[in-house]
Amino acid sequence: MGAFDYTDPNGPMYYGGVYHLFYQYNPYGAVFGNRMIWAHSISYDLINWIHLNHAIEPTDPFDINSCWSGSVTILPGNRPVILYTGLDANNNQVQNLATPKNLSDPFLREWVKFSKNPIMTPPNGIKGNEFRDPTTAWKGLDGKWRVIIGSELNNHGMAILYRSEDFVSWTKYQHPLYISEETGMWECPDFYPVSINSTNGVDTSVQNPSVKHVMKASFNSHDYYVLGNYDSEMERFISESDFTGTSLDLRYDYGKFYASKTFFDNVKNRRILWGWVNESDSTEDDIEKGWSGLQSIPRQVWLDESGKQLLQWPVEEIETLRDNQVSIHGKKLLSGAVFELSGITAAQADVEVFFEVPELEEVEFMDPTGVDPQLLCGKENASSNGKLGPFGLLTLASKDLTEQTAIFFRVFRGPSRYIVLMCSDQSRSSLRKEVDKTTFGAFVDIDPCLEKISLRSLIDHSIVESYGGEGRTCITTRVYPMLASDEGMHLYLFNNGTSSVIISRLNAWSMKRAKINGKESLRYRA
Ligand code: DQQ
Question: Are 276 and 339 in a shared domain?
């Protein structure tokens, strides 16, 4: 096997009965390199994949130093086009167009670069290395196309807006669609509508009173989003809050998840989100193992009923990998309990559990104002007892628990309501010293008086993707257990709080391996 680096998802789409995913890829090395390309894989079900030849590689003056991130837009007549960032011969970032050579090939194996590339170059006042990552374009009510490009000016991250009648000649609009007050350079922006009263997704061009818009930007190693309204006449996105780059912002994921991108799947009427999950080990480790970087399990994304945040859930197709199942109903986890969930493969599993917390009265008080939940999770880790919590899962654990990745909750009484904290504690995930074991954490917007506290974790050797509160808070982590071999991996439920909690319902499955190029895939074992 050669050495490969996989990073940002690019241009996801559904075309001709096939899901397509392109992604940033270095065919020459295990880590990011100076000739990144667009690799291309296809799938009928978002789970089993076939790798095709690379779609776009550096060949011309307008992309000779790399083909960086971008998006697909499907033009009327079902004609997909790629907009991507090229690093030109002077290492300036420019936007280029490519179209399929043969539209009747559902695999869209070959792509042709437009002869008049580049179609956008860094505008006056914008640095040549701060102009990248075009979004999927949308069509305004006036019939013109719009697209945004990530940039920054005087340390204000922004989305530069371009408009076009024909998708070929683009004019920069007089002002950006959005400028943030607090952030630096924006990478991989995403801008799309979500229904106010339905979990269905909508096409990127939809503009009507039944939608809100999401603006996502990647910076400070995280994917942040704000909700708001798109005023197409004024060409402004009016956000309900601004990006601050702090723990106050909404994020798709409070662990490892970056440079993500959504697309509208018109077959199942849903919007799907892909994100890049990077490594927590060192560059030297990546070179030794010969690869780095994963794509998340694709997630369906929609607006929560409250209108205040998005919800995310693994696409339903992941359930086709479920194998033998274990279930639990109404089991009490006493203070100090560590209960092994046997009967499934702990190294590769899908677990969904609902906790009931009957003893709410005496929980500790916490005023969340100014509290950074990630720091709180680091301080109050999985072994530090509270009243209600920590309780949750010990994943990828060795039999003696020397190695364990704990995903857990704590409940506090706040000034006006209960507060639920969700943590992913990597501090004991591996005996290896050189890996980053930062603990992650975030609040989950649920009231435990009214609903059970749920956790779904997708576990696969070196990755745990966790969904708290039925998709309100997501945390993805990469871990590298040493002691726990496949057979020696264990999965536990635990309660280190002084109060009991009840597992009102648990379903867990061993997961089969997905097929890559028709064969069972390699495991994500580091
Ligand atoms: N990765 C790409 C850039 C993008 C960055 C290069 C984000 O286009 O800004 O591989 O991870």
Answer: no
